[in-house]
Amino acid sequence: MRLRTIGLATFIAALGLAVNSAVEAQTMETLKSGMNVTEEIRHGAALAEANCALCHAVGLTGDSPHRQAPPFWKLSQRRPVDTVAKMLLDKEAPAHSDMPTFEITETQAHDIAAWIAWVQPVSHGRRLVEANCASCHAIGLDDESAHREAPPFRNLSMFYPIDALEEAFAEGIETGHPDMPVFKVDITQLQDMIAYIESIQGQ
C-alpha cells in the first residue's frame, strides 16, 4: 500500500472519481450531489480509496478492515483534523503498527486531509442541515431563521434534550413550525445532523 506520486493519467482518473469499494459504496452519491465538494476533496477521496482503504474505512461510515486502523470518519476523535496533512508529511508514528511507509507530496497530503475533514460527522451533518433545513431554520451561530416559527438550531436544546432528537426526528418532530416538511434520511445522516446540531448548542 504505497502512496505514490501520481502521474497525469492517475490524476485524471482521480478527478473522474474512478474509484470503487468503500468510497464508492458509501459516498459517491453525496459526492455527485455537489454539496461543498471541491476538486481537492474529490482528489483526496480517490487517493484515500487507492492507498488507504486496504486498512482503513475511508468513507462516511463503516468499520476498518484492519482492526487497529481507525476509520477516517472517526479521526476527529483522536486528533484535530487540521493536523492531518502535517502528520502525513512528517510521517508521524502510525496508528497501527504495520502501517507502511510512503512517499507523499504536499498537494496529496492536503487533499487527503480535506477528504478526511469532509467525512467527519459534524461536517457531514452541517452539509445536510444546509441542504434540508436552512430554508426555514437558522443553522449557524448568529443567523436568523427565515421562517419566523422555525427555531434556530443553536437553541434546540431549549426544547429537546439533544440526545433525544434522533427519536424525535424518527417519529416526526412536532415542535418548531407546523408546516415543517417531512424528509427522509438514513441513520448515518440523522446521527451526523444531530452531531452538528449538538456542536452549536449554547454558543
Strand-helix topology:
Elements: H1 8-15, H2 21-33, H3 39-51, H4 84-90, H5 106-118, H6 121-132, H7 165-171, H8 187-199
How would you describe what is shown here?
The chain is mostly helical and 203 residues long. The chain folds into 2 domains: 8-119, Orthogonal Bundle (Cytochrome Bc1 Complex, Chain D, domain 2); 123-199, Cytochrome c-like domain (Cytochrome Bc1 Complex, Chain D, domain 2), CATH 1.10.760. 42% of the residues lie in helices and 0% in strands. The chain has 8 helices and no strands. The longest helix has 13 residues, at 21-33. It is elongated. The model is unreliable at 1-24 (pLDDT under 50).
List the main descriptive attributes of the protein structure presented here.
mainly alpha; Cytochrome Bc1 Complex, Chain D, domain 2; 203 residues; disordered N terminus; 8 helices; 2 domains
Identify the CATH homologous superfamily of the largest domain: Cytochrome c-like domain
> What name does CATH use for the topology of the largest domain?
Cytochrome Bc1 Complex, Chain D, domain 2
Q: List the secondary-structure elements in sequence, H or E.
A: HHHHHHHH
**Secondary structure tally, helices:** 8
Number of domains in the coordinates?
2
Q: Report how far apart the termini are.
A: 43 Å
For the record, the CATH class of the largest domain is: Mainly Alpha
Main sheet summary: none
Radius of gyration: 19 Å
Q: Helix proportion of residues, in percent?
A: 40-55%
The overall pLDDT average reads 79
In one word, what is the shape? Answer: elongated
CATH architecture label name of the largest domain: Orthogonal Bundle
Total count of strands:
0
- Unreliable segments (pLDDT under 50, ≥5 consecutive)? 1-24
Structural class: mainly alpha
Question: What is the beta-strand fraction?
Answer: under 5%
